[in-house]
Amino acid sequence: MDHDMKNLSKRELEAYCGDLSQAFGIQECVLEGGKAKGTKAYIVNNGCGLEMTVLADKCFAIPKMSFKGDNVGFISKTGICAPEFFQEEGTRGFLRNFEAGFLTTCGLTYVGTPGVEDGQPNGLHGVISNTPIEHASSKVEWDGDKAWLVLNGHAREGYLFGPNLEIRRDIRMNTKENKLWIHDEVENHGFDTQPLMLLYHFNMGYPMLDGSCKVYTNYDKIVPRDPHSAEGMEDCEQFLDPIDGYEEKVYFRSVSDESVKKGYVLLHNENLQKAVLIHLDPEALPVLNQWNSPRSGDYALGLEPGTAHVGGRIRAKEDGSLKYIEPGEVKTFDIEVEFIDCTTENEKLSAFIK
């Protein structure tokens, strides 16, 4: 019999297991110790290469993701932080609670550079990343011999006389493919038109990230955030080894050809012979923000699709890129993340590495 679990039927797998959790599954838990204490989490293992930790108390953030034993995401020096330690003021407040991880969700009405509008301060990257999911649930669904591992729930950004936006999130993976699917619906339950700024802050870290890595994307139009980022912009796709004191560079990328309906960004690690491929809808997520930080100790690459750039809401309003959501309107967002072992699946890269 073929003992690769991906090739086993449900009944064949049950013959080997008293409890299928020895092969794959979802473990619900509460983190203890340090600033992570009390955080509700799920540990999800698809049994064929992917394992992740998902934080229900932080809008289903994914601090930890591994692919065939190798870490993928970047965890900052804060470590995992419970939402109770969140401080919105300015930039440093958010950063003191920003573990980054493989995915942090930012928004919903503002992201990026802080600013003050009509006397109201907007902090860095909004508040939804530190908002607990309501009615969070997990389940295993069978589709023939394929088991789907599913998390879902919703979170809300709202306050008296302010916005009333809800994000409904469904995260899933299965036992036959090394892929992650994210489906979000954002609904405006209020009675006023509201700015909509949603950012998927994907962060790549060591060992998936090193100096052999290169970025490929069809978000081909690129604008530097500032004059510093413009320096050496022609080499922004090739990542660097750690550099002491490196100052981050940020780029706003978009798709120049409006007829392109399928967007993507791929990170290929030549040394590790692995790749992460993110499939995107450029109409729903027209900007791919790229954060290059090869700084020693803060060694990260942010591949951040969003409804707008991370220059902040004031700048987005001024340049006309700010999106809005009408009263009662629902907007949907779908992302597929594929993890590729180039030693056995190298042909998958040919359509994207050019």
UniProtKB/TrEMBL annotation:
Residue spans crossing the bilayer: none
Molecular function GO labels: carbohydrate binding
InterPro entries in the record: DUF4432, GH-type_carb-bd
Superkingdom in the source lineage: Bacteria
Name of the molecule in the record: DUF4432 domain-containing protein
Species in which this protein is naturally found: Mediterraneibacter butyricigenes
